[in-house]
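ugh ok fine here u go
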Amino acid sequence: QVQLVESGGGLVQAGGSLRLSCVASGSIFMINAMGWYRQRLGKQRELVANRIRDGSITYADSVKGRFTISADNANNTVWLQMNSLKPEDTAVYYCVIEAKQLGLFDWDDYWGQGTQVTVSS
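structure:
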């Protein structure tokens, strides 16, 4: 089993900052990618930021220049630093890893429980 635990969400005024953390644990053999998605009310889940093992990073256009993803692969930890927050950033944020478990052949995605970020105007 692989479990991801998120923390760091909350309520913040527009222009403020939050830092989300996610720690994965369990029977992990290797991680290929770690990232963050978010889901606004009534909308589909969307990519926020993703970091693959070689260090390549992808950001959604809406967060470029404001959000920064970082990771400690050895400790299965990923962070999302969010600056200059806007009301439209309000969403449930989910961390995700693409990993291979001990004893299994294929890669799979594992998701955190989600953490609410609310940005007031």
